[in-house]
Amino acid sequence: MSNQWIQYGIYFVAFLLIQGLIINNIALSIYVYPMVYVIAIMMLPFETNVLLAMGIALIMGFGLDILSDTFGLHTSASLFLAYIRPFILKVLQPRDGYENNKLPTVHDMGYTWFLAYAFVCLILHHTWFFAFEIFRFDLIGLLVLKVIFSSLASFILIFIFQFLFYKPSK
């Protein structure tokens, strides 16, 4: 097992605990529900197999559903993100492709690329999550507000975590 995957496993557990034990217990507003655990799926190496990514997402989502009593919301949203991640990466792929030793981080890919990648991932993940949480067409305004404000809050925290947890590749 490579050192990178051991380090990733530590990050995985850290993000699960940060989300489940700290962030879920901070009530900011009915419109703001930051989800930083998504970084564990987003920061998988570019060449990660979609089935492996979905397995990781399943474990992460199920762990959060247990900690949060959300009855599968985190699991389904995490699996959705892991499934569409290769398509997002393909759309945002640089002209020369991705380098093997790089990760989808702000350090390796730059601010512009990471901004686009993170916002697309967060908007899609949060839309899935809140659509199934609300599950009513007459509350579409609430859905839109929750997706926008929660995505912004999640992005700010994920951006900060980029500098705390992830170091530039050599």
Key words describing this protein structure:
single chain, about 170 residues, mainly alpha, globular
- Between the first and last Cα atoms, what is the distance in angstroms? 20 Å
Secondary-structure element order, N to C: HHHHHHH
Summed up, the helix count is: 7
Q: What is the helix fraction of residues, given as a range?
A: 55-70%
Rounded to an integer, what's the Rg over CA atoms? 15 Å
Strand content: under 5%
Structural class: mainly alpha
On the 0 to 100 scale, the average pLDDT is 93
Low-confidence residue ranges = none
Number of strand elements = 0
Query: Looking at the structure, what is the overall shape?
Result: globular
Largest sheet report: none
Question: What count of domains describes the coordinates?
Answer: 1
Give a written overview of the molecule.
The protein has 170 residues and is mostly helical. It has one domain (3-165). Helices cover 68% and strands 0% of the residues. Helix 4 packs antiparallel against helix 6 (111-134) and helix 6 packs across helix 7 (140-165). The radius of gyration is 15 Å and the shape is globular. Keywords: Membrane, Transmembrane, Transmembrane helix. This is Rod shape-determining protein MreD. The chain crosses the membrane at residues 6-28, 35-59, 110-131, 143-166.
Element layout with pairings:
Blueprint: H1 3-22, H2 39-42, H3 50-68, H4 73-91, H5 106-109, H6 111-134, H7 140-165
Helix pairs in contact: 1-3, 3-4, 4-6, 6-7
Write a short abstract of this structure.
The chain has 170 residues and is mainly α. Helix content is 68%, strand content 0%. α1 runs parallel beside α3 (50-68), α3 (50-68) packs antiparallel against α4 and α6 packs across α7.
